[in-house]
Each structure stands twice: as structure tokens, then as C-alpha cells.
Input
Amino acid sequence: MITMKTENPLLQTFNTAPFSKIKNEHFKPAILKAIELAKEEILEITTSNEAPTFENTIEALEFSGNQLDRVTSIFFNLNSAETNDEIQKIAQEVSPLLSEFKNDIILNKELFNRVNTIYQNRISLELNTEQATLLDQKYKAFSRNGANLSDGKKDQLREIDKQLSTLGLNFGENVLAETNRFELHLTDKENIEGLPKTVASAAKEVAKEKNKDGWVFTLEYPSYIPFMQYAKNRELRKKMALAFGAKCFHNDELDNQENVLKMANLRYQRANLLGFPTHAAFVLEERMAETPEKVAVFLEELLEKAKPAAEREFNELENFAKELDKIDRLEKWDAAYYGEKLKQKLFDLDDEKLKPYFQLDNVINGVFTVANKLYDLNFKEVFDVDKYHPDVKTYNVTDENDNEIALFYADFHPRPGKRDGAWMTVYKSQEIKKGENLRPHISIVCNFTKPTKKTPSLLTFNEVTTLFHEFGHALHGMLADTTYPSLSGTSVYWDFVELPSQVLENWCYEPEALQLFAKHYKTGEVIPQELIDKIKKAANFHEGMSTLRQISFGMLDMSWHGIDPTGIKDVKTHEAEAFEPTKLYPDVPENCMSTSFSHIFQGGYSAGYYSYKWAEVLDAETFEYFMEYGVFSREIAQKFKEHVLSKGGTEHPMILYKRFRGQEPKPDALLKRAGLIKK
Output
């Protein structure tokens, strides 16, 4: 990193992010200066008198902008995990500048000419596999994003990209503000009937923080989900469900309908400019799925298998609810409540029985132990690494020979400045530079149940699988072993990136793994085999409806991005049509998912939501392979590490997968695991 004489900590040399030294006013000057430095590095490439070579052009381009990458990774993670009005304002100011800078590179004729010269002569260059992939990636970054356009069309592209960067930020800010502004304040004890003590205690803590009596419930997942699962008062469940489902759909200052329509149309215009019929066609050219048609076939095939099972499950649940409480019909705000009741009846299993065995600290140690048994990794908590919030934990990660593998950050609890959900991010990519293997700094961010004064953080089983999921992404980043940062870790096709995360969830269901960490927080008793058996039996509970739900999200995504959206005038009407093939519950006119569907309108999954189910096919086959040799088989783990986790995006994912698994993936293992076909 470039050393500069400056008071701005982001423009000084640093290894770990200097969070405690950073003030909000440092960000914009640092980003502007880093852009300036990156431009100088690009200018050095384009004005070179030497003939273009792989080293002086492709590698030089790859390693340019390092400081900008570091600064923006810090800034945008804080904008997701610890934001405030000032950071959001800065994001609005710098995002168009970053979009403009990106286009300055992609649309730079001199730079593209040098890249193109090397690309056209690639056969004679005797490049290794990773170098050949990097060259292909760099060439496509130009050719797929406007380098061959006329000057007039390049200007159009720049304007579209500027607008899209701003609209994406607006969308996300509105969702966060909408989530934060709703609360359900209850003072009558009758209204919390059915809620477990731990849930009620957490709500009482929230009320105290807000200087209120009684209990406060919010739309943050650790508050919303258990309320919907356990609250007996149906009208209050309805109130919560309507608030959750109507986020940014109120025709007010936080409404996202216009943002959705504008983004869908701008993405379509961008694709057309670049010679593609739709945004999905553009995106999927660089995915395992390859085309919108293949995604449609994939989703339709899953729909054919899942819908009959989902309809049976829905009818069973509705009959159960009618019998239990004499309701007229099953509504969306009944799903979690009666689903939990039915699960308890069928399996004698509920989250409140399980939570005492899943204290957060124990689960963290458990996932570390699993990583040690599979990949010889050791995790040691350290307290001298700068953090952006006291909740954040930091760990040094080493191998069996005490070699540095990674620095790992973990941030587990919800806060007003933190967006919903869970994600993994990178503060510093792994790369090999001047012969030195520079190790990565990896972070996961979650929103798990907070500890109270009386009780530590106890996780629901769903939160346990979420932790394992995000840690799977983290392993992909930690175990990276590539030369080039843009091919490192999770820098892979988006329908491949979920394989390491989803496959690790499987260990949450295995007795050999659960016995390592599922211990009662009071007694230390290991989770009884009886409960493990129930977890396994309940694993496929309502799998048909769950699969149908995921398919519906994938279809909604493709309905926005796989067509010409110019004729769409009403977001809700369009969404209802997209959901029709997967519809089970009566529609709720006040609700609209698209206006808060952050995955596709803010999180980078546009034309890619199908990839969760796609990766499940890969993960089911992968775990089936582990099970053949043993859940902690070092032999299979080593193969997975060697051919998948360490390789990043250095080769096409199908090549890597076949090298690991010995065959192309088939959906049979997934469908068997889900109970949708007979074993």
C-alpha cells in the first residue's frame, strides 16, 4: 500500500482496518485521493512506451487500485453494518463517483487496445491456467461492459450506471429506515400469551432501551420471527405481518415502487446497449446456468416436483389450524404459528427446547471445531485488533503448523444502524505479490438474538444454520490460495458462490458435529440423542412449501430481469402475476415483496436468486460424497479444499466441481434429501 504524509488514517499504510481512528469526514477525501492514485496507475499502463505484455498490462491492471479497494471495502461494510445519516449521505455522494471511475477504466480506449492486443495473441503467450483466466476476465470486463460502443452510447452507459448506483443506495436506505421506524408496543400481558420467556425478556429489554413500559417488538428478524411463531393473538400477528410485508410500499417518502421500476428499466436499457435482449441474458452469460432459458427450465423442473408436496403440506396445515382454532382460512400471518404448533405435535420439537443447547459462544466454538477437524484450522480470539463496534469479535486463524491463514471478524447482533440479514465480506483479499502470499481479512455479519441480563445469547436452530452458512462463505475466503485478488476466495460465478456456504449447513444436522458444541448453557449437558433424532426427522418438515417459496423468489427475480420491463406500470400487479404459479396463501393487497427485495435490488443477486437452489443441487451431492466416507473425512475435505475452496475463480466452476466430485451435478441428491422423491 502507498505510504503518504497525511492525517487521514485511510491514506496511511495499514494492515488491519484502522476503525478507531476513522471519522466520517475521512471517507470522501480518502476515496477521492484513492481514485486519483488509481488513475495515475492506469495512466502509467496506457502511456508506457513498451509493447503490451501480460505483465505490464494485465498484471499491472490487476494490482492497480489496491488502496481504493481497501478504503471502499471498509466504507461500504460500515454502511451496511454500522451506518448513520452522515455515512448514508457520503455513500450517495461517492457512489456515482466510483461508478464513473469504473467506467473511466472500462471505456478507456488506450487501455482496452493494450488488453485486446494481448487477448488476440493469447495462444502464443504460454500462460498458465490462472493467467489465462485472468486475461479472459479482464478482456470480458471491457468487451461486455461497453468498450466497443460508440462514444455516444458510452455516454449513455455512464449515465445509466450513475443512476443505478444511486437508486440501489436509495432502495437500501429506505428498507433500513422502514424497518427501524416500525415497532409494536404492548403493555397488556395477555397480548404476549404464547411467547417463550426468552422472547418476552428480549422484548422487555428493547422497551427499556426505548424508555417504555411493557414489551416492544420490531421488524428485525430476532424479534419478528419468534413473534410470528409463538404469539397467540392472531390480530397482532396480522399487524406484524402486514408491517413486514408492506415495507417501502406505502406511497410515502420511503416508498420503493418507483425505484424498482426505474432499476428494472435501466438494467434492461443497459443490457440492450451492450447487445443483450435482457438484463438476465447479460448476467447469465457469465454464470454456470449460462442462459435465462436454462434457469427457467431449472425452476420449472423443481416446481413440478415441489408443488404437489407443497399443496399437500398447505392443506394439512390449513386443516390442522381449522381444527385447532376454528379459523376460516389459513393466512400468511398464520404460517409460522401453526407450522410451529404442527411441528411440535408431529415431532415434539420446538425452538425453545433446542435454544438452551445453542448458546452463541458454544456454537462459535463448534463451527471452529468443525473447521479444525476438516481443514486443520485453529482460531484464537485476539483483543488488539481495531473494531468498528464493541460487539465485533476478532480471531487469528492459523493452520496446524502455526502459519497465518487469515484474520477473521464476526459481528452477531442487530443494531439500529445495521441492515437485516446475514452476509460475509472481505476487508483484504488474499493474493500473492512479489512472491509473498498475503493472507485475507474476512468478516461475517449476522443478526442473532441478543443476550439479556439473565440469559446469554441463545440461538434458534435456524440461526445456528445461518452461522454455519456464513462461516462456509468465510472458509471460502480464508482458504483462498491464488495469485490474483480478483480470482481469490468468493470471486466466483454467483451460482457457484453458495456451494461452500450451503454445504456447511449439513453439519448442523449430524450427531458427530452436534455433540461437539450443542451443550446446555446451564448444565453443560450434551444435547440428548433423542433431540438430535428429532432435528433429523424434522429437517424435511414443510420442505415442499419451503422449496416452493424459494422458487417463487427466483421466478419473481427473473420476471423483473428476464423480460422487457417497459410495459410494467404497477409493481404489485406484476408481482402478483409472477407469483401465480407458486401461490398457496391468499394474496394480501397491502403487501409487496419487490419493494423490499434487497437481494435483487441492492445486494447483487439480480437475475441470480435462482442460484440458491442451483447451489443446493451442488451442496446435496457434495455432502452425499462426504457421507460416503464419513462426515469428518479428511480425504474428502482435502479434495474439497484443493479443488473448490482454495481455487476461487481461477477456472470455470464446472471444471472445478467435476475435478472434485468426478461428475456433473444432478438434482437427485437434493430431491432425495428434501423428501420430494423416494430414496
User: Anything to note?
Assistant: The longest strand covers residues 404-411. The chain is about 55% helix and 5% strand. Residues 298 and 317 are 28 Å apart (CA to CA).
